[in-house]
Design a protein that fits this description.
It is built from eight helices and 14 strands. By secondary structure, it is an alpha/beta fold. It binds S-adenosyl-L-homocysteine.
Length: about 280
């Protein structure tokens, strides 16, 4: 979606999906082509480098989010078209919110400010789910285990609430080289509410070079490598593994017979309410 006046310059928040361009949206692809200036974390710039040759590029390190947003706003205020690249979706633990917050501080409005376009992308939770089956078929919660910006007690409360309410859970930022305690405590809380056989998928570098997929369970999940490039998907109480795929039923198996075309009651099920998904 776009707001503001592009004659005053433009910032495009581009979520490019998990990695390679075939999983980028057409609009994200076009936006990278249209941009004069590209701003992003070095790893992300690297992932899209063949699409942005010859453009003015600002690469920054991991913790320099505010610098990145500031450069983007400055260059846009000079009348340029600036693309800020994020992996996945820029509005999911990305820079879209930070840019809007900073523009707000400057008094930006949709009516007469520079143009801002937020371009959606497939977030890691969606991309990683697609690699291991269909684990997100029922209600899910996404939780980041990074306590850099959120106190750990708050994160733990959310994990506990999601576990108790039987949400499928996607864990972003589960661990880093120095941050290793969080995933251990997370598992302990999950085990208070879920069976140790609950399926768990550990996806590292989904759709990128070095991709690894592990299907395990709550009991054994810590026997596998978990780091910065990993997303973890925890099943709900109905999730099961079939032929190496993680499946969360939507409830059809209780409502309808899946083996034949007819429902247990002998009439075709009305699926019109699910077709739009
Ligand atoms: N805006 C991004 C999330 C950034 S937070 C999005 O919408 O996906 C960074 C975290 O995202 C990582 O720690 C990891 O948990 C997850 N992540 C991002 N890309 C990933 C990928 N290709 N494979 C697995 N996890 C990924």
């Amino acid at each position: 979606m776009e707001w503001g006046n592009s004659e005053k310059g433009k910032i495009m928040m581009v979520g490019f999906g998990p990695g390679p361009k075939e999983h980028m949206t057409f609009r994200a692809y076009e936006a990278l082509k249209e941009a004069d200036v590209i701003v992003g974390y070095t790893t992300y710039i690297e992932l899209v480098k063949d699409l942005i040759e010859g453009k003015e590029i600002y690469e920054t390190g991991m913790r320099e989010e505010v610098d990145r947003a500031e450069i983007a706003i400055e260059r846009a205020e000079e009348g340029k078209k600036v693309a800020v690249v994020s992996s996945g979706d820029s509005g999911v633990y990305g820079l879209a919110g930070l840019v809007l917050e900073m523009l707000r501080e400057k008094g930006w409005t949709r009516e007469d400010g520079l143009a801002v376009e937020i371009i959606p992308g497939a977030s890691a939770i969606n991309a990683c789910a697609s690699l291991v089956g269909a684990p997100l078929m029922h209600d899910f919660a996404s939780i980041s285990l990074s306590d850099l910006l959120t106190p750990w007690e708050v994160i733990l409360e959310r994990i506990e609430a999601a576990a108790k309410a039987d949400f499928v859970i996607g864990l972003y930022n589960p661990a880093s080289g120095t941050r290793t305690r969080q995933i251990i405590e997370t598992r302990e809380v999950l085990l208070k509410h879920r069976a140790k056989e609950t399926p768990v998928a550990i996806v590292k570098s989904g759709y990128r070079d070095g991709q690894t997929l592990v299907l395990t369970n709550l009991d054994e999940m810590l026997n596998h490598k978990i780091g910065m490039l990993t997303t973890i998907l925890i099943g709900n109480s109905s999730t099961y593994v079939y032929d190496g795929l993680m499946i969360t039923p939507r409830g059809y198996h209780t409502k309808y017979s899946l083996a034949g075309k007819e429902s247990a009651a002998g009439v075709l099920p009305d699926t019109s309410h699910v077709e739009s998904d």
